[in-house]
């Protein structure tokens, strides 16, 4: 049996591009019209809601309909959006229940050493000596630090804290995370 049952992706493989970057990222879900002037309520899924501002371009639904934001304001835990060209309740209602996206290429860069979660999902995880440990399946957000959920070749899950003592290097170019396993992290 090979050491790495999860070989690197081929460029012609289906799904996200081989760089691991999707073309679009979900930032919210449009719910229902609010009032009579075309505003619509949106559940916010992004950690950076300040980027949804007047002039920003969002893409709605599976067809990625281009929408320009006219105004935004908070309403309880949701955001109210006015969108260019949507001036009444009926027009806004047509957008109800659609996911809203931004282009990955248009998002702001993070500071050096920080990564978006979607960049880490699917990455190979190797130990310091190069031994293959598994693939990042998901990331759990906790109060203290995030946790990498790594699917091992044995179909088990290893939970690795995303801390400097464990995560030694993250290479987007190699699509790989190098880790140091502290005692007790893996059975």
Q: Runs with pLDDT <50, length 5+?
A: 1-19
Strand fraction:
35-45%
Average pLDDT metric: 85
Shape: elongated
Largest β-sheet summary: 6 strands, antiparallel, barrel
Structure write-up:
The structure is a single chain. With 187 residues, this protein is mainly beta. The protein has two domains: 24-106, RimM (Elongation Factor Tu (Ef-tu), domain 3, Beta Barrel); 122-179, Roll (SH3 type barrels), CATH 2.30.30. It has helices spanning 89-93, 117-120, and strands spanning 24-34, 39-44, 57-60, 65-75, 78-83, 99-103, 124-127, 132-140, 147-151, 157-161, 167-171, 176-179. The strands form two sheets. Strands 1-2-5-4-3-6 form a six-stranded antiparallel beta barrel. A hairpin with a 2-residue loop joins strand 4 (65-75) and strand 5. The longest helix is centred in the middle third of the chain and has 5 residues, at 89-93. The radius of gyration is 20 Å and the shape is elongated. It starts with 23 loop residues before the first strand and ends in an 8-residue tail after the last strand. The model is unreliable at 1-19 (pLDDT under 50).
